[in-house]
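Support request, please re-run this one:
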Amino acid sequence: MLKGNKGEWSEVYALLKVLGDREIYAGDSNLNKIEKLLFPVIKVLRDETNGTYSFELSKDLVIIKGGGEEFRLPLLKFKEQAFYLLSKLKETTSSTFSIPEVENFIKSFGCESLKAKSSVKSDIRIVIHDLRTGTTPELGFSIKSQLGGASTLLNAGKTTNFNFVITGRKFSREEIIEINQIDTRSKIKDRIDKIKELGGKFNFLNTDSPIFENNLVLIDSLLPKIMAEIVYLFYTSNSSSLRNLVDQVALINPVAYNLDNKHPYYEYKVKRLLTDIALGMMPSKVWTGQLDATGGVFDSKR
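Re-run finished. Output below.
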C-alpha cells in the first residue's frame, strides 16, 4: 500500500490534473493564473523507479508507455481521479495516509510510487504547444504543494550543515558539558547564547559537504560566508523570515562590499541562489549551472 504526505500525493494530483485538463497556464509572481498565456499539453513524462513513463494525449484517450507496456485509458478517468484526489487532500488531517482508489488507478498503468525520482529537480516534464511560436518544447517542472504545510525549496540535512569555530576564550571541560546539556525547545539558540555570554565568538569555517560549498562558490565565490552569516543571524536574532535576515546581513556587510552607491549585493546574490535551487541545484550533487526545472514550478493548491 502506498502511503505519503500531502506534498507527495500532490505530485500525483499534478500529473492527473495536467492530463485531465489537457492544458496549463502561466502564472505571475503571486502564483495567479495568467488567462492569456495558455499552453495545450501534448505529452507528460515522469521518471518512475522502474523507468520513464510517457503520457501522450490523443483525442479522448491518454496513451501511456512505460515498463515495456502500453496502456490506453479514457481522459475522463484522469479528470475524475484528480477531482477525487483533491477532495481527499483537502479533508485529511493525517501526516501520512493512503488513498486506495487513486493508488489502484495509477497502478493500473504501471506507476508504483508517489514521488518521481529524486535525482533531478523536475518532478514532471511536459511537452507543450507554444501557440505564439508554433514550437513544442519539453519543459521540466518542480511541484510544490500548498495543500499542507508550507513547502520548502531546499531540505535541511547533513549536506547543508554550516560549521563554525569558537574563538575568544578557551572553555573548560565543565563549561562544555554544561553547554551541551542545554536541552530546551530552542536549545541551539540557547547554547549559542550561553557561549556568547561566556565570551565565545563564532567564525565560519566550512560546510559539512564540500560539494554543497563548491556549489555555492560556483554561484558566487562569497556566497558560503554570506549564507553562514544568515544562518548565524537566524539563531541569534529575532528574525526568522529570509527577507528580514538578508536585510540585516546587508546592514552588517560581513564581506565589506562598497555600499556607497547602494548596490543590493546581498539581496541579489540570495535571489540568485534561490533561483538555482528552484530550477536545478541540489546540495548533494555537483552543480554545473544546467537548469533542470526549465518550465518553473507547479503550485498545487486548488
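Strands lie at 23-27, 33-48, 51-58, 61-66, 69-74, 124-128, 138-145, 162-167, 201-207, 296-300. The mean pLDDT is 89.
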